[in-house]
Amino acid sequence: MRAGEEICCRHAFTESADQLSARWLKEWRDGIDGSGVRPGFLKLGVEKGKLPEVHSKLVRAAAQVHLESGLSVAIHTGDGVAALDEARILSEEGVAPGALIWVHAQNDPGRHIEMARRGAWVSLDGYSASEKNRERYKNFLIALRTEKLLGQVLLSHDHFWSVEGDGERGALKLHAGGADNAYESIFTRLWPDLREAGFNETDFQQIMIKNPAAAFTIRVRRI
After folding, report:
1. Does any domain span residue 223?
2. 139 domain-assigned
3. CA within 20 to 30 Å of 218's CA: 28, 72, 100, 160, which one?
4. CB 221 within 8 Å of CB 98
């Protein structure tokens, strides 16, 4: 959570874990902001290192929500130290590691294996077709496959498109996040590289179909 977000999210600082979980459970039951649209998973964001009190509280609140709703807990995480702290807090609340999706795990490859062995989801986000990126992600996946942990891996480009401006005045502006050819590179670059490294169709089905389906399935995962 950034400093500029404190005003719009003040309750994250002022409410207890119980109050936050009650707030989020209401959204799960009734819809977000009265829209009737119910969440399919929980999303949090924390910084690097051991979690400060406010972030620990958010994770505890998410654990309570998970035990009531079965929603997976996806956490935008600064590094593996924070990810391990998340797993610890969830465990203290009785939530199994399989409920945790470590978002942006590519930022700390030294702990991929440990987190995957614990049963957490290791999400490698931000893949693009640059030569340096291609080699990094290929090596990440080779290491996880060697340890027989492909069943804990998620992949994404982490690209986005947005439109800003007043359409009536003709001032629309298109913004793109990620590489120029969004949503392609995993299929056009990464998988050919992995096939050359010995990956097969079973591996493809595991990472691209089975894993996301399992990670985001709504079910309670208790220890």
Report:
1. no
2. yes
3. 160
4. yes
